Amino acid sequence: MKKKRILFLMDTMDGGGAEKVLLQILQNIDYAKFDVDLCLIYHKGVYLDDIPSQVSTSFLSKIKPGIFFRLIRFAQFLHIEKLLEIYINSRLRSDYDVEIAFLEGQSTKLIAMRRSKALKFSWVHSDLHACHWTKDEYRNLESEREAFRAMDHIVFVCRQNQLAFNQLFRGMDTSTQRVLYNPINRNAIVNLSKAFPVEKKVFTICSLGRFIQEKGFDRLIRVCGRLRDDGFSFQLWLIGKALDEKDWKELVASLHLESVVDLIGFVNNPYPYLNAADLYVSSSRAEGFSLVIAEALCLGKPVVSTTTAGAKDLLNDGEYGLL
């Protein structure tokens, strides 16, 4: 039987939740049935070395991400996106059976430009109504709507994301939409949580994610200042990639929280820290399906979360954790 040929298009393989989910999918595909190509828009990411050897990996651009993004915006401004379409099609083969934009934004925009006969999918990981982070990558809302309309299927990682999407993009055909929760390998998480010992001295709060505005680590740190001032004894572990680590250290120092807040940075296996903690906190301003909330639940950790789309789904409106 002829193998199906699948293309995944992704921005990077950096340390975010969507990248982690994609890696999980790639590690569990039946390669006896599928030939898989992974094309990254940018040649960067902490998970690059973890991509299975069966996957053929390529890169659209080795230009710095900021420069490539500006070129896309320049093409939009001059209405010469046809040139971008020609470039994309020249870089990718034309005989895929399925083409998957595994992230909203640039990946979806570029797959929509493809003139192939493949079935086209777009994965939506974010609550775009609460945090429309993709809007600068399109001329206007209508051009973004048209990119999604070019898809045969739109996949949402939680129900609330789908509701938010249809609030923002009114009039979309919902028959092409479906909710597919992110895969969680509970046994692997439990086993990885025992990989090395982690000691704690006081009640410990843990939070994981990239140090970006949407994750709300800035307000979590400020809340820690209030808790400390109220006389509580505790430690906060913040685990994730921070491009502007100096700024975060300055925020912690400005609140005199050096002995309370531990900026651990990116850890390839964060589960021993999560397992050792007493509480997991998600402080996100907007969130799709929160992998880390699911992972904390796998390890039996109590969860406190801001009321975001994914958290409402995962915690069943507060039944399984505090919103």
Description of the molecule:
There is one protein chain. This protein has about 325 residues and is α/β, with parallel strands linked by helices. Helix content is about 35%, strand content about 20%. The protein contains 12 helices and 12 strands. The protein has helices at about 15-25, 65-75, 80-90, 105-115, 140-150, 160-170, 185-190, 215-230, 245-255, 270-275, 290-300, 310-315; strands spanning about 5-10, 35-40, 55-60, 100, 120-125, 155, 175-180, 205-210, 235-240, 260-265, 280, 305. It has a 7-stranded parallel β-sheet with strand order 3-2-1-4-5-6-7. A 5-stranded parallel β-sheet has the order 10-9-8-11-12, sandwiched between helices. Strand 5, helix 5 (about 140-150) and strand 6 form a beta-alpha-beta unit. Helix 4 (about 105-115) crosses helix 5 (about 140-150). The longest helix has 13 residues, at about 65-75.
